[in-house]
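Suppose you are handed a protein chain with no further information: no name, no annotation, nothing but its sequence. What can you learn? This example shows the usual starting point.
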Amino acid sequence: MILMGKFLSLLMVTIAVVSATTDDHRVTIVREPEHTSSVKWTGGSFEWPCTATKNMFKNGGRYISKNVIATRAVISKDDAIVALPRFKSGVPATLAKVSLNEKGCEANLVPYPCWSVQEEGTCSALQNAVDLYLDPQNILWVLDTGVVNTLEEPVRKCPPKVVALNVNTGKLVKTVELTGLTSPTSRLQYVVSDYSPDGRVFIYVSDAATRAILVYDVTSGRGYRVVLPQAIAAGCTRRDVLYLGLLRRSDGSTCLVFTYLSGSRLFSIRTEHLRNGSANGRVHDLGQKQRKMVILGTDNGSALFFRYEGEPDVYRWDASTSFDSRNFQLVYTSQECSLATHVIADYKRNRMRVLESNFPDYMQGTVGCGANQALTVM
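A reasonable first move is to predict its three-dimensional structure. Written in structure tokens, the prediction is:
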């Protein structure tokens, strides 16, 4: 493990340019269908060290291609790094990269940063990567719940954590243990990171089961839970989803937008209040949702992307305007049988990309050889 001092040194080298970088760390969508392209694959087609290793994993039930599905992604230069949650058994790697320059009909998954980091039961390795976030300084934050086979018979292999990787080097720079901030009933679902005006690094994690946002000051090594008002969970089910999205305002300040899938309204809170440890009187009600809304991502500026549950249309809302359907712009429609699970920025190409799949079929176990997945330019 790299010591905290090294981590801070890495961050302080670039901290002076954070505000300039984050101002430009966003994408302007230009809808030009003739330029659209996709990287596609079915199930989990991995790049193995050798045939013997592949056979060993298959014969031992540790590799079942149809059980592999990518649900979240980030783009780094010519690669997409994808989260492959261990919803079911047989997922040999829970974090992998895919080349955006793939020329074949099936893209290969390459375990990221390497095979040894994917070992189930080894708590220094990744157990179940359910979300990831690439910050403006090219630090990748990976949320690992520590629980595998969540759609079959859930097994806790290790404590929950957030792992920070430098995507320029592939090196581990920090592991944040979350045990002290969680309970046995916690359901950790989304992670984002942010920098305070004085250069401190914070991560925010949604805990749907306890109606809370976990806040961790990486710079000082201190974390706490911010319990949200009961009003945000009105009408929600016990197994609901608590979505997070980080938005950047024109003045450089940031806020978190959040909502439960079954919740009737969308909310926000300025990150400065989260950093101060209190949400009392600080949560802002943005307005009524038309129906169940799935938050898909942001452009790292003021734009939020979302779709409605079970529907293929992806909308863009600029948070500098009121939360009103008249301000929702239709920007993408998924192919038949596919739904978007993440919208992410592709900075090299100055475009947004959509990660989509036939996720409902996967959940129902009706994907045949595996889920059809694609990273498509919006």
